[in-house]
Amino acid sequence: MIAIDERGYYGEFGGAFVPEMLYANIEELRSRYLDIIQEPAFQRDFRQLLRDYAGRPTPLYLAQRLSERYGFVIFLKREDLLHTGAHKVNNTIGQILVAKRLGKTRIIAETGAGQHGVATATVCALMGMPCVVYMGEVDMARQAPNVARMRMLGAEVRPVTSGSRTLKDATNEAIRDWINHPEDTHYIIGSVVGPHPFPDMVARFQSVISEEIQEQLDAHTGRSWPDAILACVGGGSNAAGAFYHYLNDNRVKLVAVEAAGKGIHTGHSAATSALGAKGIIHGSRTLLMQTPDGQIIEPYSISAGLDYPGIGPLHAHLIRTGRAMAVPITDEEALEAAFFLARTEGIIPALETAHTFAALDRAGVEPGQTVVVNLSGRGDKDLGTYMQVIEQQGW
Ligand SMILES: *Cc1c(COP(=O)(O)O)cnc(C)c1O
Q: Which of 201, 315, 376 to mutate to test the pocket of ligand 1 (most atoms within 8 A of CB)?
């Protein structure tokens, strides 16, 4: 049975490794999150916003031309059609409703690529709550359009100038803020990472994805389960949502797609399950890319959303126990897959999602089988990168 235990572990991965000064914040959340999200009134509010505001259910689309090309039946779960363009809003809607029920009046978040920052700023505007987003100075320069979006939505984006001025420094600043404002502030974490109960809470909010897949697949095919589900893994929230209701159904192969960057062994990669070892990052024990003496190795991927040195504890467990298969995909392969999808189905995927499509012929799927690809987000934010490929390589 794959499920989180009372201490917040999936097997040997997970837990809550937090400084003493954060203990009260985490304990408040841990002791109340399940009761809150199981309340009928919470579920009513959550479901209503997912439907009327975010645009759920998202379609499960039978990709005819793609299926012909591969020789198996491919369904696309269209999270790219959600408000804000990706799955992340499922989680931020859930967490802001939890924050309100905890009596919090202020929201903080950290962001690397800016996608989680935008999804957080969006729900804060919706609820009329002040929002501070910490972002490394380097990332702010690289992701200027998302900085503009957050500001337009009324969020305060605070530049982080310490360390390498990227995501992990922004995380440290957010944690410092939370320690200083334990009473009124909730910290919205954007993936299935961080100390318990965040990985479980985020997985539950994203699990609406596989809940819908079951129903929609049954309507399409008369069978509620596919032979395989593919999803890309940065921290692992879209994958956790797509896998969730199939975790204990061994008929369904789970395929976790990682960013191999310029190649797993080039030193420019984010293939955490291939390169990582057990360690503690952002408050949980998981797999992470580190030197022999435990220093975190800077990850690299062409896609900002997969550029993370760790992986959620659920995925570490799934991969290390053999329940999920990890497939590494390079920048080049992802770009090729993005153009192929665009020209075969008329869908421009996010760069993160493009990795998932590149794994279609590496997942060991047999002819005639049924596959679901979780199409985590749309590619508008990556058009600059795609344009460079068109200009430089003539695609
Ligand atoms: C952020 C993001 C991801 C990676 O995050 P996960 O938590 O691993 O899902 C993947 N796809 C898109 C479109 C994203 O915006």
A: 376
Q: 352: domain range?
A: 55-85+207-393
Site residues for ligand 1, CB cut-off 6 Å: 86, 88, 115, 191, 232-238, 305-306, 350, 352-353, 376-377
Please tell me the residue having the least CA distance from ligand 1 atom 2.
Answer: 305
Domain count, the chain: 2
Chunked mean pLDDT (size 10), the chain, 395 residues = 95 96 95 98 98 98 98 98 98 98 98 95 98 95 93 98 89 94 96 98 98 98 98 98 98 98 96 95 95 91 91 98 98 98 98 98 97 98 94 90
Give me ligand 1 centre to Cα 190, in Å: 9
Of 175, 201, 227, the residue that ends a domain is 201
Q: Which residue intervals of the chain are DSSP H helices?
A: 23-38, 40-49, 64-70, 88-101, 115-127, 137-142, 144-152, 167-180, 198-206, 208-221, 237-243, 272-275, 313-320, 331-345, 351-358, 383-393
177 & 190 share domain: yes
Residue 4 lies in a domain: no
Q: Which of 141, 173, 201 is the last residue of a domain?
A: 201
240 CA closest ligand 1 atom index: 9
